[in-house]
Design brief:
About 20% of the residues lie in helices and about 35% in strands. By secondary structure, the chain is of the alpha+beta class. Strand 2 and strand 3 form a beta hairpin.
């Protein structure tokens, strides 16, 4: 399969919620820098959304999440207008996790923070911001 710049790609974003109701966000260093974002990445061919979420969170944070659930889909047109890449992002939520947060990809992320989802760190990456908006408003999809 070829990756055509004119074909939308599928991204994953995982909203990890701790016992205080805060969500985990990282400060990006390479692509999409200097934005903050929930953990996530690309869906691999043949992968379920849930397995992709588990893999991406482990790769980026070292956390093991359990029972991630799809809660929203976002159409990231701001990123398309700014970068020329069109992503459809699947947002999942995970309230069960174990392990210690580590910066597993120091070339991609400089820090992980627990933040109030109603008062996100800025600047914030579009797909992450939209996913958290859907989570807070309890909607699966909305036009932004």
């Amino acid at each position: 399969m070829t990756n055509n710049k004119n074909t939308p790609r599928v991204g994953l974003g995982v909203i990890i919620v701790n016992h205080e109701g805060k969500v985990l966000v990282g400060k990006r260093k390479n692509s999409h820098a200097p934005f903050y974002s929930i953990p996530g990445g690309h869906l691999d061919p043949g992968e379920t959304f849930e397995k992709g979420a588990i893999r991406e969170v482990k790769e980026e944070t070292s956390l093991d999440i359990k029972n991630p659930k799809v809660i929203a889909v976002t159409n990231n047109l701001e990123t398309y207008r700014n970068e020329g890449l069109h992503y459809i992002s699947i947002a999942l939520i995970a309230k069960e996790f174990s392990g210690v947060i580590k910066i597993m990809e120091p070339d991609k992320c400089e820090e992980w923070l627990w933040v109030d989802p109603s008062n996100l760190t800025t600047p914030h990456f579009e797909a992450s911001r939209m996913a958290i908006d859907c989570y807070l408003e309890k909607v699966f999809y909305k036009i932004f």
